[in-house]
Every structure is written in structure tokens, then in C-alpha cells.
Automatic annotation (TrEMBL):
Protein name, entry field: Glutaredoxin, NrdH/YruB family
Pfam family for this entry, one: Glutaredoxin
Domain of life of the source: Bacteria
PROSITE patterns assigned: GLUTAREDOXIN_2
Domain Glutaredoxin: 4-61
Organism, as annotated: Halarcobacter bivalviorum
Amino acid sequence: MKPVALFVLPKCSHCDSAKAYFKSKKIRYNLIDVTKNKQALKDCQKHGCKGAPVILIGNTWICGFDKQKINKELGIK
């Protein structure tokens, strides 16, 4: 499976939804709080993402919690 990184903000309901979705699908991911990692925040912004969560699957950046794009990248039906 491709590596998955989840960039989040504290108290973000969409971020919580993404975490719950990954847990329900048993998808392992690296959790990164962009308030504590300024370089990660810059990386997200560089790829055109303005909000949270941001999901990186392999080399593909997904802005926001978009199940359809996540499933496509991970090959989930």
C-alpha cells in the first residue's frame, strides 16, 4: 500500500472524519499537526491546499477530506 500522511489542525471536524475513515478502513497513516510543523504547512500550501485536512498518498496531494479521491488512490472499491 502507498504511504499515507494526514496533515491536520487541532479541533478540526473534517480532520476527525478523515481519521475515523482511515481507522474504519484499517489504513495506516502518519499524522502531522501543521500547527507544530511549519514546513509541513508550507508543503501543503505549496500544493494549493488552503484548509485542512490535507492527505498525501504516495506522491498525490488531496486537499480536503475527499473519500472518492482517497479511495481511487488507494484502490478501495
